[in-house]
């Protein structure tokens, strides 16, 4: 990206960032008496408003709000792509793959349940401009074989063609983890193609995120799912900052949870994940995401000359949408303000 475009996109980003939710907005959403009140606050008082115009409040539920919020994120990313070129544009396009994969998961689960996929089209959120997945063809397929055939010519056909069928009785876990691994492999490969000097902080932050995902994967995989060494290795992510291949191999071979716990705590930068014995399992994911939220906030406010501010902004939007989704869920379970705040990524302490 040329220097003139750096200056232009950074100015644009500061304006876009100023529209994100502030503390008062969070407080208003958390204290909203009902889901309808939350919806009208978002619609009338925030930059999500234009994307909520067609949402009807009859039988309002989480997905009806989450879908347009995610569409807003895609819209913002596509605007930023206008200023990017070369490897930097390729890297940001990689971030859009997450939405592609989430939409694929919606359809794969639909096939497993025997749903009419055309009825799920409204729940698919992806970049029509940059996706290479023929979603228009996929929603018209009637079975797993025709679904896979519609993906011929994409990487996803290679990933999915080994699975002979998908039903509610089948375990969709390997398919979904395989898609996740594909995304992170692409992310790692395209991260390595960026200018390493100009993007030093971005690279460090991204690789820390991979480390944290691996720690959560091994902890949960062993404690709750009792996965085999082979399963743990197959879906562990590569490209982390501190956790290398030998560390992944070692953690996969540990049998005892206490021993695994000690090994994980030895990574001092990430010990915060494991220093809360009473709430370790309950808040582990939130602690991981909160760490990354503040890492990306620091990256956004930094002075690095590369792509860091762009990627940080995208991540901050994602975390904001996750928090809104958590607040929506809090209305469903009638949680108090204090209980709701405990599950948010952004801290109010």
From TrEMBL:
Gene Ontology MF term list:
proton-transporting ATPase activity, rotational mechanism
Q: InterPro entries in the record, alphabetically?
A: ATPase_csu/dsu_sf, ATPase_V0-cplx_csu/dsu, V-ATPase_V0D/AC39_subunit, V-type_ATPase_csu/dsu, V-type_ATPase_csu/dsu_dom_3
Tell me its family.
Answer: Belongs to the V-ATPase V0D/AC39 subunit family.
Q: Which UniProt keywords apply?
A: Ion transport, Transport
Lineage: superkingdom:
Bacteria
This chain's source organism reads Eubacterium callanderi
Name the UniProt record assigns to this protein: V/A-type H+-transporting ATPase subunit C
């Amino acid at each position: 990206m040329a220097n003139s475009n750096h200056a232009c996109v950074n100015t644009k980003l500061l304006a876009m960032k100023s529209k994100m939710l502030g503390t008062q907005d969070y407080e208003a959403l958390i204290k909203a008496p009902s889901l309808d009140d939350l919806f009208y606050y978002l619609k009338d008082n925030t930059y999500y408003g234009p994307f909520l115009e067609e949402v009807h409040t009859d039988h309002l539920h989480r997905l009806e709000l989450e879908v347009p919020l995610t569409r807003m994120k895609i819209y913002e990313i596509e605007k930023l792509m206008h200023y990017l070129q070369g490897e930097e544009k390729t890297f940001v396009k990689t971030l859009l793959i997450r939405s592609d994969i989430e939409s694929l998961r919606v359809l794969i689960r639909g096939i497993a349940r025997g749903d009419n996929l055309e009825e799920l089209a409204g729940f698919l959120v992806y970049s029509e401009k940059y996706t290479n997945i023929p979603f228009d063809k996929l929603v018209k397929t009637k079975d797993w074989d025709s679904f896979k055939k519609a993906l011929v010519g994409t990487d996803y056909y290679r990933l999915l063609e080994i699975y002979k069928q998908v039903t509610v009785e089948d375990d969709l876990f390997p398919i979904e983890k395989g898609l996740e691994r594909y995304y992170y492999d692409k992310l790692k490969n395209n991260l390595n193609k960026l200018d390493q000097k100009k993007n030093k902080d971005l690279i460090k932050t991204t690789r820390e995120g991979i480390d944290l995902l691996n720690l959560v994967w091994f902890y949960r995989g062993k404690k709750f799912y009792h996965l085999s060494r082979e399963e743990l290795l197959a879906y562990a992510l590569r490209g982390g900052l501190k956790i290398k291949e030998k560390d992944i191999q070692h953690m996969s071979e540990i049998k005892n949870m206490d021993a695994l716990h000690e090994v994980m705590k030895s990574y001092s930068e990430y010990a915060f994940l494991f220093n809360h014995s009473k709430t370790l399992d309950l808040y582990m994911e939130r602690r991981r995401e909160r760490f990354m939220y503040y890492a990306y906030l620091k990256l956004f406010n930094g002075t690095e000359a590369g792509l860091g501010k762009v990627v940080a902004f995208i991540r901050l939007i994602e975390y904001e949408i996750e928090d809104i989704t958590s607040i929506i869920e809090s209305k469903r379970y009638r949680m108090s303000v204090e209980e709701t705040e405990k599950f948010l990524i952004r801290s109010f302490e």
